[in-house]
Amino acid sequence: xxxxxxxxxRTYRLFVSTGEVSGDLQxxxxxxxxxxxxxxxxxxxxxxxLGGDRMAAAGAKLLGNTITIxxxxxxxxxxxxxxxxxxxxxxxxxxxxxxxxxxxLLDYQGPNxxxxxxxxxxxPKMPIVNYIAPQEWVWSHxxxxxxxxxxxxxxxxxxxxxxxxxxQKQGMKVTWVGHPSIDQLQFxxxxxxxxxxxxxxxxxxxxxxxxxxxxxxxxYLLPVIFQAAQQIQRALPDVQFWIPxxxxxxxxxxxxxxxxxxxxxxxxxxxSQEVIAAADVAISKSGTANLEIALLNVPQVVxxxxxxxxxxxxxxxxxxxxxxxxxxxxxxxxxxxxxxLQEQATPDNIAQAALELLLNPDRRQKxxxxxxxxxxxxxxxxxxxxxxxxxxxxxxGE
Length: 398
Known about the structure:
This protein has about 400 residues and is an alpha/beta fold. Helix content is about 50%, strand content about 15%. The protein folds into two domains: about 10-185 and about 380-395, Glycogen Phosphorylase B (Rossmann fold, 3-Layer(aba) Sandwich), CATH 3.40.50; about 185-375, Glycogen Phosphorylase B (Rossmann fold, 3-Layer(aba) Sandwich). It is globular, with a radius of gyration of 22 Å.
């Protein structure tokens, strides 16, 4: 007589919270890596999330879509308060009622800080990992005091070496895994491949414009970028502009702006790596895209603008200061790419800086040398897998 033993292998449940376009992209990379590493370890894994379409496509079960809910600044955040609170209530109720083994807070600073505090207060034994944590090491007024994450986070997966050092000094458990853009761009097309795919002639002067991944940026950044593009077009009538579309909802306002400003521009959805790699120069808002541009070896000009009241409060009331705003400069803590913040972000300044990169080979070469130095500080390929391995170790109590 043969006896059959039936057993059910436990399924571990992770909850990942992120938002906006960049968070959704990084979240999708992490979800893929978690599934890959779980399979190698023989672990059954279910991933639930706040995120966007990319995370859902990667296999996460979405509780709520946060891809368009997010803003930089005080006034700018007001339209997003109610949608954010609604999704936060949903997430908190879910965490109270469902059996979750570990929470990953990925980027999405304000909402994730609130969610982390709630978990610590009401679910004190829940393990919390921060991946792409708030850049407290950059903000001088916070850097002098204690981290917001103290008492909330059990383990920080740092993406910058300086970030790892900062949180270690705060007495927190930290693992430096490297920057996920290294993984994201390891198979990116080169200039020749991208130009062939997009139908751009080898000798065509081409500039990539990256104006917006948040709705507020259509208001504060797109006009100044397009005015700078107008000036460049007047100086170099043969120039062509290419614009990667971050969200379909932005298509109509960007197409209308292209027409209003009379730009020789092409809007391309879903092919940002090709658009950037094909360009001679990029003009971009400050953000993760700056690192992607640098890793693709494309010279760039960076800018950012906020509502004037938000900027005034930050400068005069909160005494908010930063040494640099763009990631390539922050990695090395020196000026690699020109960056223009608020009143310095004028069409004249941006156009002049872009034209210099287009027409001055020495200036281009100096920036590319800076990129090479920066690249060495971002870690090796396998960032997302290293992050996933650390999360799974914590999940298993190792």
